[in-house]
Amino acid sequence: MTKDVPPPFRDAALLLDLDGTLLDIAAVPDAVVVAPGLIGDLRALRGLLGGAVAIVTGRPIETIDALLGDAPFAVAGEHGGAFRVAPGAPIERPDLKSPPEAWLDQAAAAAARFPGAFLERKARGFGIHFRLAPDTGPAIFAALSALVANSPDFEMMPGLMLWEVRPKGADKGHAVRRLMRHPPFAGRLPVFIGDDVTDEDGMREARRFGGAGWRVPDVFGDAAGVRAWLRETAARGAWAALK
Ligand SMILES: [Mg+2]
Fold first, then answer.
1. DSSP string covering 166-178, please?
2. In terms of CATH architecture, what is 101-167?
3. Which of 28, 42, 72, 211 has the least C-beta neighbours within 10 A?
4. What is the pTM of this model?
5. What's the pLDDT score for residue 4?
6. Residue 21 alpha carbon to ligand 1 centre in Å
7. What's the gap in Å between 58 CA and the centre of ligand 1?
């Protein structure tokens, strides 16, 4: 179990992954449910932490807005491919490449070969989900790997029952560095919470800033455990004891 010592609550910034961390994983990404009370708890924490609550996700920022409204102060979407550093600020997109259209066509054709698998397009990349076709992971990996094999600009990343093609430089560590340059995050100690391999860059970077990086299965069990801890932390105005 990896359980970093939490920084003093009043000095912390909370950087939270969404799926599998705040929300239970659903069979398809559109089917996620925001648990009652979560938005209120995030707002309360934002008030207690001088605003320093951000969502750091692979999803587009627009999806976070639809799910969580104005609860987070800042959102990093698409693994750091899109940022909104403050409420109402424009969405910024670092200068990263977009994948060739031909790749999207080939990925769509690959997904169509595997019943239950489906393509998700993102502004800077794309992925094939296979939660509904769990045996197809290796074949999907092979199909997408063939696309990026000789590319200097793109890489494959695993997700939860997902293989994704993303521009290099779009990862959650990069997202943490960028958020921590802006108030109210700058000068605080980031606590990054995530459940999946793509979160490990964010956790590592949070530790480099003197904060903490916590894997949901190790520290909280599951997203319900994270939500319970956030609720207790918001109610106390201080870190609740970790499991
Ligand atoms: Mg996740």
1. EETT-SHHHHHHH
2. 2-Layer Sandwich (3.30)
3. 28
4. 0.83
5. 86
6. 6
7. 8
